[in-house]
């Protein structure tokens, strides 16, 4: 293995390039799938959760997305143990095959309209398999590259793995844009499946490249000397000395890193499209542009961490996010859809209702129909992307929506049959839309009013925060644990942080927004967790 002195010029040998590419290409592919699902959450909701109302449907689609993140820690245990006992290369191959096959099959699942409840069940099962595979993927990639890195270069070398996560998002956005352009209106009906089916090609390439790998030299040496662990899980988490470091790594590193990561790249994507109603193609182009500009900073901060340490850079990224997320997202509204901002100031929307009749509009089994007047009003406003506040009313009061000086009365649908409810809901929606339009609330963002350069700048700042917290994290985690239990020990805190704290961010944030009516309220989740870290 080639060596270099700490502080020397960052150069990659041919063998090191091969190691990084082989490790990273699979990581890129796996993130491609997760970002693909996140970007197409609206299409997924329409295809597999069509039995729910629009608000619950979107939240359920995001929760199905989060289901893959929920099982990632379990994948970390299963594949981390396998990687520490059998080897890094073998584990690499298993995780990529499971992930790739599951991704491909998502593109083949019939819709809810075709096979009913079986459709979302199959989707969630595939999401769980993908999450298990990813739980074993990242720790292996980080460990494998770090164990090939020369002394003093782990931050620089492992930062290239971090780039591939962003490349995965970038690739998914490009594929989606190309499919939308080529397929037109057919994209929303069946064309959304094409990006998932294309993953079969990526899987074949990834497996071929990983077959060319040799085992990690440090792992080979450890096995040859008989120093391997016979029980990586109990040694990692059953001994307080190591468990304490695992807990610190979770609370003091990966939790904050995760929410800044998902807030800057995922929540911003949803915020632009779902809340500000900016054209989906332009939204994807803006995110892609920000990624293109900021991605080199993964390597910049990874290399810098070799000189000044990992912790200062990651902590600064969390601090900046906690301090600036609210003004940045308010800036996105100001420059992205100023009509919403102006309308909210001139004609604020208030839902006046008996609090006891206002439900948290989330039904995981899809059998509850929200027919109370408060729920009907809030569902319509949330679907329209209109911010609102809440005003309590007397018990038994039928909810109403105040839009400036105009009041639109909701209706109680509990006693109505299906046809009558549908007709009444249509009449209410029409009256509400007319009132919102008169008050200046746009159905979609006006491209002529969008300040594209400022949006790109703000999104780039968010992604730079991502590079600060994510660029050095792999090297930091690898260095905390010994070789014999490294794969297992580092994978669990990483995937609890990213799988649970980060993976549930979109669904938690959007549920909070739907609950309060404040389009910025979901940011509190990121701010609180980043501040904790």
CATH superfamily heading of the largest domain: MFS general substrate transporter like domains
Number of domains: 2
Mean pLDDT across all residues, rounded?
Answer: 81
- Indicate the low-confidence ranges by residue numbers: 1-9, 363-367
Radius of gyration: 24 Å
| Main sheet properties | 4 strands, mixed
- The helix-and-strand class reads mainly alpha
Q: Per DSSP, what share of the residues sits in E-state strands of 2 or more residues? A: under 5%
CATH C-level of the largest domain? Mainly Alpha
Give a count of the beta strands, DSSP E runs of length 2 or more: 4
In CATH, the topology of the largest domain is named Growth Hormone, Chain: A
Sequence of strands across the biggest β-sheet: 2-1-3-4
Label the CATH architecture of the largest domain.
Up-down Bundle
> What percentage of residues falls in helices of 4 or more residues?
over 70%
The count of helical stretches stands at 24
Mass-distribution shape: elongated
Q: Can you characterise this structure?
A:
By secondary structure, this protein is mainly α. The chain folds into two domains: 14-337 and 448-532, Growth Hormone, Chain: A, CATH 1.20.1250; 341-438, Glutaredoxin, CATH 3.40.30. Helix content is 72%, strand content 3%. The chain is built from 24 helices and four strands. It has helices at residues 14-39, 41-48, 54-70, 72-85, 88-106, 112-115, 118-146, 154-183, 186-189, 194-211, 217-224, 232-237, 240-275, 280-294, 296-308, 310-336, 338-346, 373-384, 418-438, 452-470, 473-480, 486-502, 505-516, 523-532; strands at 349-353, 389-392, 400-403, 406-409. Strands 2-1-3-4 form a four-stranded mixed beta sheet, covered by helices on one side. Helix 3 runs parallel beside helix 7 (118-146), helix 13 (240-275) packs antiparallel against helix 20 and helix 13 runs antiparallel to helix 24 (523-532). The longest helix has 36 residues, at 240-275.
